[in-house]
C-alpha cells in the first residue's frame, strides 16, 4: 500500500514524509532484529526518495504515538535497576545501542541528505516535556546526554526540537530565533480510545493553523496524521482503537476525506507556487486592528510580494485596509495575498467538494463459508504449573506476547454457607488493573468450587514517568453475599496460565487449524474461536469487516492479525466505539480466505459482514454571498500570474477515477441545512434545483455548478435565505454501453 499512499500524499501537495522508528517492532528480543515486510525501514525511505520527496526520521527511540509501550521493547523492563527515559545508565546503554544501530543502517543505505539521500531531519526523544518534571528522571541531564549522543552519530543532517499540538504558530515561542521553527505534529483530528466519540477537526481550522505558523516564520509543518491507517495485531497502546486517525485527510482505508484533503492541498499549492518570496523575502509585520494582523514577505528586486492577513477574532468577520485596499476577512481565518494585493486563498472559504463514506455488504460465497467453532479449554487450578499464594502481576507472566492471562483458584463451600433466602445470590467481586475480565464458575456452589477468570489487556500504556513500573492483573478478589459473610480469596492460592491455547497452537493459520477439533458454530459462547472462509470481494474498493454482532476479541485473516475489536464498549451515544475493521487487500487471495475470530464475550459470528468501502457520495455546499477565491492563476517561475479576477462562485463535483455521476441524491438552493450525506431542505427551498443539477451533471465524471440564484429560479428575497447551494450526487462505474449502473 505504500506507493499508493505516497502518491496520494504528493497529490495533496506534500513534499515530505515523516515516520517513527518502532524499537519494539524492530528488536522484539535483545539483539534479534526484524526489518522484513512492512517493517522494512530502508525500503520505506527509498520509496520516499523514488517519489521525489524528503524524509524526516524520528528515531526516538521512545515514540509514544499511541503505540504499544510507546515503542519501547518489553524486555527493557526486565533489566535490573532500569528507569525509562531518565539519566539512568542501564536505559541509556540500550537506547544508545539502538540509535547507533539505526543510524548506521540508514548510513549504509546512503539515505541521509548528506549522502545524497532523502532524509533531511532526524529526531531524538519525543514529547519529553510530559515527564521532565519527574524528579527521578533528572530530565535536563538526560536530555543533554541524548542530544550529545545524537550529534555524535554524525548523520550530516540536523537533529530537531519539536512542537506537537494544534496551534504551534500561536503557542510556541522559540528561544533561539536563528533556528528554523519546525512543527512535527499538527493534529488533524484526535486519536480515539474505546468509548470516545468521533474526534473532529475542521479543514478550516487546520488551514488556519498552518498559515498562522508560516506567517510567523515557520519552516516546516508536518500533519499528524495525514494518513493514520490501522493498528494491526496488538500494536495499539492501552484502550486505543484499532482504526487510527480515521479523520485525517486520507482516511484509514486510503481514501480522500473531503473537504479536508482538497482544502489543504490548495493551501500547499499556493505556498509552493510563491516559495521564493516566502523563503527569501524580507519579513515585516503590521497590526491592522484588534485581532487583525498582516505578515508580509517581499523581494523588491524580483517584484515579489506575499502577504498573510489574519483575523484572529472568533465569531467576528471584518474588513481591513491594507496598502490602500479594503479587504474582507472572515472570523478566525487567514487570507493569502499574491502580489500583496489579490486574495488567492482564505482558510475559511472552502470551495472543494465534500465526500461521504458508505459501506456495502459484499457477495463473498466460498465452498467453506460455514462458521465453525472451537472453545478454549477453561483451566482449573490443578491443571496449572505457575502457582502462587496470591494472583501474580499480569505483564510479568505474559511478557507482552499475549493480551491474555488465566487466573484460577478452588475453594470449598457447604450448604450452610449459602444464603437462606432464595432472592439473594453470592456475588464475585474483583478489583483489577487489567482492562477487561470474564469469569467462569461451576454450576453449583456446593462442594469444591472452581473459579477461573480470563484477564485481558488492550495494549500497554504508551507514556508516563512510571512506564517501567506499570502493572496489570487481579489486586483483590472476594465473594460477597454468603451466609457466613464475605469470603476473601486473595490469598487462597492461585494458578496461572499465560496466553490462549489457540494462540499457542496458532489455530488462526492454515497450518495450525488442524491442531484442535472444530465443530459447527453456535453463538453466545464465551472464550470461543470461530472460523470460516470467504472469497475476495470484486473490484478494488477497500475491504472491511463489520463486527457489530460481536463483543470483544481479536481478528485474523490468512494468519495476519487485523487487530483487536471491542464493539460492546459503547460511546456515550450508545454506538460501538468501532464497528468496521480494515482488511487490506494485500492480505487477501482471490478465493478461500481464512477468517478466524477469537470472541471473549457472547457474540454472534453469523452477523459478521464482509463489506467494501467507497466515497462515491460527493457534495458541494456554497453560498452566493461568499466572495469566491481567485482560481484563474498559474505559476510562472517563482510568481503567481493572475489571468483574470473571477469573483463568481462555482462548485465542482468530480467522481473517483473511472466513475460517473449516476444520481442526484439532493439539490436545493436557499437555506438548506446539515452536512454532506444528511442535507435537508430549508424554508426557502427551490424545487427545480434538482432538475437543473441533473441536466448539468448526470452521466459525466465531473460537472461545474454556478452558485447563482437566477439559474435555479430561487427567490433571493425569501426572508431566511442564505443563498446557499447544497448538492449531493452519487458516482458509480458506467456499464459497457457507457450508461451508469
TrEMBL record:
It catalyses: Hydrolysis of terminal non-reducing beta-D-galactose residues in beta-D-galactosides. One of its GO terms (molecular function) is beta-galactosidase activity. The keyword Membrane does not apply. Keywords: Apoplast, Glycoprotein, Glycosidase, Hydrolase, Secreted, Signal. Its EC number is 3.2.1.23. GO terms for cellular component: apoplast. GO terms for biological process: carbohydrate metabolic process. It is found in: Secreted, Extracellular space, Apoplast. Residues 652-732 form the SUEL-type lectin domain. InterPro entries: BetaGal_gal-bd, Galactose-bd-like_sf, GH, GHD, Gly_Hdrlase_35_cat, Glyco_hydro_35_CS, Glycoside_Hdrlase_35, Lectin_gal-bd_dom. PANTHER family: BETA-GALACTOSIDASE RELATED. Belongs to the glycosyl hydrolase 35 family. This is Beta-galactosidase. The gene is ga16481.
Amino acid at each position: 500500500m505504500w506507493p499508493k499512499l505516497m502518491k496520494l500524499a504528493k497529490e495533496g501537495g506534500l513534499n515530505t514524509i515523516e515516520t517513527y522508528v518502532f524499537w519494539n517492532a524492530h528488536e522484539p528480543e535483545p539483539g534479534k532484529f526484524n526489518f522484513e515486510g512492512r517493517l522494512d525501514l530502508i525500503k520505506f525511505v527509498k520509496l520516499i526518495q523514488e517519489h521525489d520527496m524528503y524524509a524526516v526520521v524520528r528515531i526516538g527511540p521512545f515514540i509514544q504515538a499511541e503505540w504499544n509501550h510507546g515503542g519501547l521493547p518489553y524486555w527493557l523492563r526486565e533489566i535490573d535497576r532500569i528507569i525509562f527515559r531518565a539519566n539512568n545508565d542501564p536505559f541509556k546503554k540500550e537506547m544508545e545501542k539502538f540509535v547507533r544501530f539505526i543510524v548506521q543502517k540508514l548510513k549504509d543505505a546512503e539515505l541521509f541528505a548528506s549522502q545524497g539521500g532523502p532524509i533531511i531531519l532526524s529526531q531524538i526523544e519525543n514529547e519529553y516535556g510530559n515527564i521532565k518534571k519527574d524528579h527521578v528522571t533528572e530530565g535536563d541531564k538526560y536530555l543533554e546526554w541524548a542530544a550529545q549522543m545524537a550529534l555524535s552519530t554524525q548523520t550530516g543532517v540536523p537533529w530537531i526540537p519539536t512542537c506537537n499540538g494544534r496551534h504551534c504558530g500561536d503557542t510556541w515561542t522559540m528561544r533561539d530565533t536563528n533556528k528554523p521553527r519546525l512543527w512535527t505534529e499538527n493534529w488533524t483530528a484526535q486519536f480515539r480510545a474505546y468509548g470516545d466519540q468521533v474526534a473532529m477537526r475542521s479543514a478550516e481550522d487546520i488551514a488556519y493553523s498552518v498559515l498562522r505558523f508560516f506567517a510567523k516564520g515557520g519552516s516546516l509543518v508536518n500533519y499528524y496524521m495525514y494518513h493514520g491507517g490501522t493498528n494491526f495485531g496488538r500494536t495499539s497502546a492501552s484502550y486505543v482503537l484499532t482504526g487510527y486517525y480515521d479523520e485525517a485527510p486520507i482516511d484509514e482505508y486510503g481514501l480522500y476525506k473531503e473537504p479536508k484533503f482538497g482544502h489543504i492541498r490548495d493551501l500547499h499549492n499556493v505556498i509552493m507556487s510563491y516559495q521564493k518570496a516566502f523563503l527569501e523575502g524580507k519579513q515585516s509585520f503590521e497590526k491592522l486592528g484588534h485581532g487583525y494582523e498582516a505578515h508580509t514577505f517581499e523581494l523588491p528586486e524580483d517584484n515579489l510580494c506575499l502577504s498573510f492577513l489574519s483575523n484572529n477574532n472568533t465569531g467576528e468577520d471584518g474588513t481591513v485596509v491594507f496598502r490602500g485596499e479594503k479587504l474582507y476577512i472572515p472570523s478566525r481565518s487567514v487570507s493569502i495575498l499574491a502580489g500583496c494585493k489579490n486574495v488567492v486563498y482564505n482558510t475559511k472559504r472552502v470551495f472543494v467538494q465534500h465526500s461521504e463514506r458508505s459501506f456495502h455488504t459484499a457477495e463473498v460465497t466460498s465452498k467453506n463459508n460455514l462458521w465453525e467453532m472451537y472453545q478454549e479449554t477453561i483451566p482449573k487450578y490443578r491443571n496449572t504449573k505457575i502457582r502462587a499464594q496470591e494472583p501474580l502481576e499480569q505483564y510479568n507472566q505474559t511478557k507482552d506476547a499475549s493480551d491474555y492471562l488465566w487466573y484460577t483458584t478452588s475453594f470449598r463451600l457447604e450448604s450452610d454457607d449459602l444464603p437462606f433466602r432464595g432472592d439473594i445470590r453470592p456475588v464475585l467481586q474483583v478489583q483489577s488493573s487489567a482492562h477487561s475480565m470474564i469469569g467462569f464458575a461451576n454450576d453449583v456452589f456446593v462442594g469444591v468450587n472452581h473459579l477461573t477468570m480470563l484477564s485481558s489487556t488492550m495494549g500497554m500504556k504508551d507514556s508516563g514517568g512510571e512506564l517501567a513500573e506499570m502493572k496489570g492483573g487481579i489486586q483483590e478478589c472476594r465473594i460477597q453475599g454468603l451466609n457466613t459473610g464475605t469470603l476473601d480469596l486473595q490469598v487462597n492460592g492461585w494458578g496461572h496460565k499465560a496466553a490462549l491455547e489457540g494462540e499457542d497452537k496458532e489455530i488462526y493459520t492454515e497450518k495450525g487449524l488442524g491442531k484442535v477439533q472444530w465443530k459447527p458454530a453456535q453463538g453466545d459462547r464465551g472464550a470461543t474461536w470461530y472460523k470460516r472462509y470467504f472469497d475476495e470481494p470484486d473490484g478494488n474498493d477497500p475491504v472491511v469487516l463489520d463486527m457489530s454482532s460481536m463483543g470483544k476479541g481479536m481478528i485474523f485473516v490468512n494468519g495476519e492479525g487485523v487487530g483487536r475489536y471491542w464493539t460492546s464498549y459503547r460511546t456515550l451515544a450508545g454506538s460501538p466505539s468501532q464497528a468496521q475493521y480494515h482488511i487490506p487487500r494485500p492480505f487477501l487471495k482471490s478465493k478461500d480466505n481464512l477468517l478466524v475470530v477469537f470472541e471473549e464475550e457472547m457474540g454472534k459470528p453469523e452477523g459478521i459482514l464482509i463489506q467494501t468501502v467507497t466515497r462515491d457520495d460527493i457534495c458541494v455546499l456554497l453560498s452566493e454571498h461568499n466572495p469566491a477565491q481567485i482560481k484563474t492563476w498559474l505559476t510562472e517561475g517563482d510568481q503567481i500570474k493572475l489571468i483574470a479576477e473571477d469573483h463568481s462562485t462555482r462548485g465542482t463535483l468530480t467522481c473517483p477515477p473511472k466513475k460517473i455521476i449516476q444520481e442526484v441524491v439532493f439539490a436545493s438552493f436557499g437555506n438548506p441545512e446539515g452536512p454532506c450525506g444528511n442535507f435537508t431542505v430549508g424554508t426557502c427551498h427551490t424545487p427545480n434545483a434538482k432538475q437543473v443539477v441533473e441536466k448539468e451533471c448526470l452521466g459525466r465524471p465531473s460537472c461545474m455548478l454556478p452558485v447563482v440564484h437566477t439559474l435555479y429560479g430561487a427567490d433571493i428575497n425569501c426572508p431566511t435565505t442564505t443563498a446557499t447551494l447544497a448538492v449531493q450526487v452519487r458516482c458509480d462505474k458506467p456499464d459497457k454501453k457507457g450508461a451508469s449502473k
